């Protein structure tokens, strides 16, 4: 049964009156609510749902996101199926740390954690200034077990782009169940760690380890050693996007 969209919007409206310092208490609440069926919902329904999700999680106000709505007319028709979203709304503002993004990702009631230094992470493509729509988003399930570097080459042939770490986190916030299916490599970003350059990954394990009780949480990490793994991990897939639509800068 799908969640009533107007009810979600009502919740978002109520949260506008909640003081900012208290909003952290409801971070991830929207991830516990079932959204519309992404394979059949209209673009308008998907936009309203995501806008409510963003506002509930305190990432941006609806008034900041609404100007993106006319861009839906530029999104091409696609065959809807699992693992593909027509678009995701990207909140793109200075100072929004990856740890702040990850804490909005919730799987089985557990909030996400980032193990990365934001200053060491860079995107490989130029992004729109301000909030934007990432279009025709594939969550990586169609390229499981393929190395991110090889996926990037395939994406280029298909006129697609590797998804950034922020886009991967947003996808996980919108559809947290994807992390139960597979881990998300984000080849549109590169992490320059102490052990070398690598592709950031968003992963989830239902089992905590003795050494790290947080291991069972959704996590953002990057290990250069993974780049050398042959064959590559069959539980990892690279996110990709067909394009990015932003508003002109006045």
Largest sheet, in brief, is: 5 strands, mixed
Given as residue ranges, the uncertain stretches (5+ residues, pLDDT < 50) are: 1-5, 10-33, 207-211
The topology string of helices and strands comes to HHHHEHEEEEEHEHHEEEEEEEE
Q: What is the total tally of β strands?
A: 15
Mean of all residue-level pLDDT scores = 83
Mind explaining what this structure looks like?
The chain is α+β, with helices and mostly antiparallel strands and 250 residues long. It has one domain. The chain has helices at 5-15, 20-23, 43-56, 62-65, 98-102, 148-157, 165-174, 178-181; strands at residues 84-90, 106-107, 110-111, 113-114, 121-123, 132-138, 161-162, 183-185, 189-193, 196-198, 201-203, 219-221, 236-238, 240-241, 243-246. The strands form five sheets. Strands 4-12-11-8-13 form a five-stranded mixed β-sheet. Strand 9 and strand 10 (196-198) form a beta hairpin. Helix 1 runs parallel beside helix 3. It is globular and about 45 Å long. Residues 1-5, 10-33 and 207-211 have low confidence and may be disordered.
Q: Which properties best describe this structure?
A:
250 residues; 20% strand; alpha+beta; five-stranded mixed beta sheet; disordered N terminus; three-stranded antiparallel beta sheet
Task: Outline the secondary-structure elements.
Blueprint: H1 5-15, H2 20-23, H3 43-56, H4 62-65, E1 84-90, H5 98-102, E2 106-107, E3 110-111, E4 113-114, E5 121-123, E6 132-138, H6 148-157, E7 161-162, H7 165-174, H8 178-181, E8 183-185, E9 189-193, E10 196-198, E11 201-203, E12 219-221, E13 236-238, E14 240-241, E15 243-246
Parallel strand pairs: 4-12, 8-13
Antiparallel strand pairs: 1-6, 2-3, 5-9, 6-15, 7-14, 8-11, 9-10, 11-12
